[in-house]
Amino acid sequence: MNPFAADSKPVRENILNWLQMYPKPYSKKYVNPYTKLRIILCEGAEFESTWFLHQLARHSSDNDLRREVALVRNQEQQQQKRIGALKPLDEHFLETTIGYEQLAIELTAILAQRETDQNNIDALNLALLEDFDHLYRFANLLKKDFGIEAETLLGKLTEVMPGRPTINEHRHPYDHIKYSGNAKTAGLFSKLAANIITAAEQQTMNFYMNMAANYTNDLGRKLFAEIGMVEEMHVSQYECLADPTCSWLEMWLLHEYTECFLYWSCMQDESDSAIKEIWQEHFAMEVAHLKHVAALLEKHEKKKASDVIPEPAFPNPLVFGQNKDYVRSVILSQVWITSDRERYKDVREMPTTADFFYYNNAVNGAPENVASHLIIKHSIKAFNGIDYRSQEAPHPIKELDDRKKDNVTVGKG
């Protein structure tokens, strides 16, 4: 599929009306978990596009270009509102949070297994174990406060057990910064992966930033705030993976191409016919945006779309499927790995003077101050001496297999 050759209407004809922008929500009892993941992912892509275009407009003095930006951005906003309305009224935002973390795990695992760029693979694997642990912490909060077992929301497609303990994920901000990609030499999938994972993690970061203070008890508010800070770390590292030397219009073209790829991927295996129709309509809209930006690139910078995307045919679609074995293998090989500037190191081999230890000790203090530790401690007490998990085999790390005590040493020592 070459999106530049796909049928589309002119951008100005793609305005949605209010009825289109408020579709029927899914049923939280019967929705396929992967449908929820697509919804979260595509809403995140629309937010990223909107925010990027606001930044573009703020860095341009050409009002004719700003008007073209505003036209496309308006439609991205309409798409975002439409996707956001698919969430049902009776779904508590903690239930939605379980979907956010399932997306982070499954999407990261898919991208890491398809990537060929080692810099990107290392960044993805580092964050994968952390999002996996976040799911475990939020799942225990969900059961403790609402009596709901997360496996019913996850469809048992994703295991629930510790990853790298969240308490040991907190690193110095200097260590979030990674090597940038090179748009001229990077493979097409690597460019897509950098854009997709940045948008997805940014959506999670924003969700936690905005929802933390709305939780109904102190422990939940603190847990959202703590994990929200880790999501800030993830966005900081992922946004480094794209090429910052591209022009604003080149980056815009890549944004639109990424959205085309995501909606096209969602169309391939969506089981909900009404939602599949939305993906199809949004794909056509994004194709129109892509062609529109290609024309703007040629007008303003005298460059062709082929200069930015030489081989425009999509790679294989991004299809969700179980990644349990891969996640377990990454836990086994990576649980002691942390970030040290642009590199990744075994924390047990780092000097005690490293910035990681300085920052981690400063922000955490004693474990009893840390919400991600306290939620497990309280859950063990509430659940007759064991934490909540949903796993198919013993934990691959012996120290993390004990359900009667929350481990705070793995990943730090």
Q: What this model shows, in words?
A:
- Helix 1 (33-58) crosses helix 3 (93-114), helix 4 (118-146) packs across helix 11 and helix 7 packs across helix 13.
- A hairpin with a 2-residue loop joins strand 1 and strand 2.
- This protein has 413 residues and is mainly α.
- The termini are far apart.
- It has one domain (3-400).
- It has 13 helices and two strands; from the N terminus they run αααααααααααββαα.
- The radius of gyration is 21 Å and the shape is globular.
- It has a two-stranded antiparallel ribbon with strand order 1-2.
- It has helices at 33-58, 63-84, 93-114, 118-146, 151-154, 188-211, 218-238, 248-269, 273-301, 305-308, 324-334, 355-364, 371-382; strands spanning 337-340, 343-346.
- Helices cover 57% and strands 2% of the residues.
Sheet/helix structural class: mainly alpha
Give the number of helices.
13
Percent range for helical residues?
A: 55-70%
Low-confidence stretches: none
Taking the alpha carbons of the first and last residues, their distance comes to: 49 Å
Main-sheet strand order equals 1-2
Q: Mean pLDDT, nearest integer?
A: 98
Shape: globular
Number of domains: 1
